[in-house]
Amino acid sequence: MDVKEIISEPQSKQQETFPGHVIPTQGGGIITSTIQDVINWARSNSLWPLTFATSCCGIEMMSVAPSKYDFSRFGFEVARASPRQADVIIVAGTIVQKMAPVLKRLYDQMADPKYVIAMGACAISGGPFFYNTYSVVKGADHVIPVDVYIPGCPPRPEALLHALITLQGKIKSGLTREQIKANPIQL
Amino acid sequence: MDQDYIKQRLIEKFGEAVTGFESPYGMLTFEAPKEMNLKVLQFLYDDEHLKFRFLTDLCAVHYPDNKGRELAIVYLLHNLVDNVRIRFKVFSPINEAGAPYTADIYTATKLFEAANWLERETFDFFGINFVGHPNLKRIMNVEEMDYYPMLKQYPLEDQSRVDKDDEMFGRGGSVI
Fold first, then answer.
1. Per-domain residue ranges of chain A
2. Contacts of A143 in chain B (CB under 8 A)
3. Is B163 part of a structural domain of the chain?
4. CATH topology assigned to domain A3-182
5. Per-residue pLDDT in tens (0 to 9) along chain B, 176 residues
6. Which DSSP string do the residues of B72-119 spell out, in sequence order?
7. Which residue in chain B is spatially nearest to A134 when comparing CA positions?
8. What is the ipTM of this complex?
9. Domain containing B97: what range?
10. Which of A95, A96, A98, A99 to mutate to test the interface with B (most CBs of B within 10 A)?
């Protein structure tokens, strides 16, 4: 089964509610779950993004923060300017060859667990600079592992919100690159 | 201070050496031999009427078909007191392919602090050696780069692409 199908599967209750089962007893109930599911659920609902905007996608990312789109509704409100405190790096813009070592260093400085979103055509493939360029890296995934790609030039703010929710689904399902590396699963 | 006055002062000082006076888009433009670039800049800087003491920009242009004058180095100067701008060019032949530098020009860093980064940028993209520059190394591109990307032998875009032809936008074009 495809990763995309698993994380968008409606019956996986992980998506919507607390992961576990309620056993009713007198005067309340008992929740049973696995510690891994609870950790993933907690992590996915408090993702702090690193502000890493290298070009026009950054403008769209900024517009997702204030009240009109408001990504704090989904738990992303605490945008950090320091990689030490961030959970997810949103690569919003063109990565040039001189920026690539800086991006790698920022990624290495982030504390585990860490996730990567590649926003826009440039971060996916080099975008409009794909042909005959002397300076542009053809995709952020040449430098760091990417969990979610957002197409667009630049993508709409709704697309970024969708990508953030998709990332939450991936974390809850245990299917981000980092989680797969730690616990190899059979799809 | 009008353009005729600047032109007259330059001809008084340098005579036949300054040539090519014109004013495209209303900005006085002239050229001088490349060995004289500092003398002309110094005169424009020191003269108590001309007072061109601000270097707005410094760049190069590559004209591969212009034999013996392949590279132009363009200085854009500003008189901040009277708000007058001029453009000053020197032309240089280009060195053989494979030479470490494409041309040698005296640096303007002693006259303008701003020339430091601008000359590094011009070196980075065109390979012009600014003789006497205190720190001539690449500024925009990665240091491992071993060519000068703005020279015309590197095409702007893949010439075989057809998806940007005018035909694709419904206005003629070369694709039939």
1. 3-182
2. none
3. no
4. Rossmann fold (3.40.50)
5. 889 999 999 999 999 999 999 999 999 999 999 999 999 999 999 999 989 999 999 999 999 999 989 999 999 999 999 999 999 999 999 998 888 899 999 999 999 999 999 999 999 999 999 999 999 999 999 988 888 989 988 877 666 666 666 776 667 776 55
6. EEEEEEEETTTTEEEEEEEEEPPPPTTSS-SEEEE--TTT-TTHHHHH
7. B149
8. 0.72
9. 3-153
10. A98
